[in-house]
């Protein structure tokens, strides 16, 4: 059993804290957001993540997990402190490190015994050294510390399973002994633990996310070519994926990647390259294709409806992906704004992200379920592939709608079946669609 502090109880911090406590450690989490801490102390989750509530409850009850707004309380017994604060997009795509700076400074000012500072946030290469400088500047006296980079690879929607069964754990530090101590925390997970230097560990995270985003933009480009040439991208991706050199993951065409990571991380990596005089042309193409993919949806609607002004469009799914309520960089928000500015009325339904969406896209009229959404719509767009959309009573949906257009941004329906039901159906990259 180790004593661990976690700074920031967002998607990464809360999952890290609860999973490390579930592995038998004593974890105290701190956040500057009083409302979040208050909620957690009342047993309420500030975010939606499958399985989270039960796991938090179990570990709080066992006395291994607690939440506070006080840094001294959080650090009192800690041997390790994980930094899991946000690193949002800043000016020109550069990562905004203000929360990391604040967290590092608070840790430095309050630490009174040796600490291993483990950075879980996705931070530009070189940030570990910069954090060490901040700690040296603000610490009281000569309290010893080490900085370890430990980038997180979990996916929202399956965050707990991903944390507890990762493909690998990456650790980077100039202090090998400190990295090995952090490695001990992960031994129960029985996974590959890679120890490297600080900058390389930071780069592994950006390179991994940029590569996954590249796969998505690649298959979206292939989807667009399929539409022009009469091929079915779903089958194409399946056929490609059987090749062991390629694999099946991240080859689903759609409405473009979104969320709190890929968009900002590709931009930040591109920015890092540019300020060093490099020309990240592939990363730029990945971002361009992604932007265009959202516009494609609007173009398809415009074509199908013969104009958007005065039309009512329903968005099936608002979160950036299923099983989360996260609306950061959600394609639905971009599509809604484009439709609104083209004069359409936009309605939306999401099984869990409705409340968050109400703040992000306030003009979108929220429906209580998919059938309520369909009522009076000229067209529906599948934006997020929630399971509950896959088995809708489509004949009922058709009868409720004013029009018959379905634009399937996630290819969850079978084109023939929908055409038989009387829909005008367009998927993504499935046969001659641009005609
Ligand atoms: P988040 O915005 O959900 O949570 C960040 C939390 O940090 C918030 O609760 C905020 O109040 C708190 N915070 C900010 N400043 C603080 C301070 N000085 N002291 C204490 N708390 C503070 O962010 P997230 O999605 O969990 O992402 C955190 C980091 O992990 C980012 O760098 C992100 O890129 C990376 N990451 C995220 C994911 C993901 O799926 N969300 C996956 C892998 C990596």
The CATH topology label of the largest domain is Rossmann fold
Specify the biggest β-sheet: 8 strands, mixed
- The stretches of 5 or more residues where confidence is low (pLDDT under 50) are none
How much of the polypeptide forms β-strand, as a percent range?
Answer: 5-15%
How helical, in percent, are the residues? 40-55%
Structural class assignment: alpha/beta
Number of strands: 14
Kindly provide the name of the CATH class of the largest domain.
Alpha Beta
> What do the pLDDT scores average to?
97
Bound molecules: nicotinamide-adenine-dinucleotide
Number of domains: 2
* Name of the CATH architecture of the largest domain: 3-Layer(aba) Sandwich
Task: Give, in spatial order, the strands making up the sheet with the most strands.
Answer: 3-2-1-4-5-6-7-8
Termini distance? 64 Å
Apparent shape = globular
The CATH homology group name of the largest domain: NAD(P)-binding Rossmann-like Domain
Count of DSSP-assigned helices: 17
Q: What radius of gyration results from the CA coordinates?
A: 23 Å
């Amino acid at each position: 059993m180790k004593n661990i502090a976690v700074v920031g109880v967002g998607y990464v911090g809360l999952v890290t804290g609860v999973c490390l406590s579930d592995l038998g450690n004593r974890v105290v989490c701190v956040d500057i957001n009083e409302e979040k801490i208050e909620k957690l102390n009342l047993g309420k989750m500030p975010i939606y993540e499958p399985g989270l509530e039960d796991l938090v409850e179990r570990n709080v009850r066992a006395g291994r997990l607690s939440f506070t707004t006080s840094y001294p309380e959080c650090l009192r017994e800690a041997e390790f402190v994980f930094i899991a604060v946000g690193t949002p997009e800043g000016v020109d795509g550069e990562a905004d490190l203000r929360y990391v700076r604040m967290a590092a400074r608070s840790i430095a000012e309050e630490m009174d015994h040796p600490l291993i500072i483990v950075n879980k946030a996705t931070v530009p290469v070189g940030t570990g050294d910069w954090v060490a400088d901040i700690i040296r500047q603000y610490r009281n006296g000569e309290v010893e510390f080490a900085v370890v980079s430990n980038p997180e690879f979990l996916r929202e929607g399956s965050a707990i399973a991903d944390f507890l069964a990762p493909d690998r754990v990456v650790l980077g530090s100039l202090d090998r002994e400190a990295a090995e101590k952090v490695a001990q925390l992960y031994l129960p997970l029985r996974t590959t633990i890679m120890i490297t230097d600080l900058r390389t560990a930071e780069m592994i995270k950006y390179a991994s996310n940029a590569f996954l985003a590249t796969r998505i933009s690649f298959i979206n480009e292939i989807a667009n070519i399929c539409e022009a040439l009469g091929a079915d991208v779903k089958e194409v991706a399946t056929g490609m994926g059987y090749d062991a050199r390629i694999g099946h993951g991240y080859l689903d065409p759609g409405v473009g990647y979104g969320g709190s990571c890929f968009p900002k991380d590709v931009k930040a990596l591109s920015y890092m390259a540019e300020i060093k005089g490099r020309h990240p042309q592939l990363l730029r193409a990945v971002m361009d294709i992604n932007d265009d993919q959202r516009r494609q949806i609007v173009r398809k609607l415009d074509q199908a409806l013969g104009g958007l002004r005065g039309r009512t469009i329903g968005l099936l799914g608002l979160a950036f992906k299923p099983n989360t309520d996260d609306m950061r960089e959600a394609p639905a928000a971009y599509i809604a704004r484009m439709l609104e500015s083209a004069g359409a009325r936009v309605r939306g339904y999401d099984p869990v992200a409705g409340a968050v969406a109400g703040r992000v896209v306030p003009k979108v009229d929220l429906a209580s379920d998919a059938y309520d959404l369909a009522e009076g719509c000229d067209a529906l767009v599948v934006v997020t592939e929630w399971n509950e959309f896959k088995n809708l009573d489509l004949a009922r949906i058709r009868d409720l709608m004013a029009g018959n257009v379905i634009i399937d941004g996630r290819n969850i329906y079978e084109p023939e079946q929908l055409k038989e039901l009387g829909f005008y159906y367009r998927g993504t990259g499935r046969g001659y669609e641009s005609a």
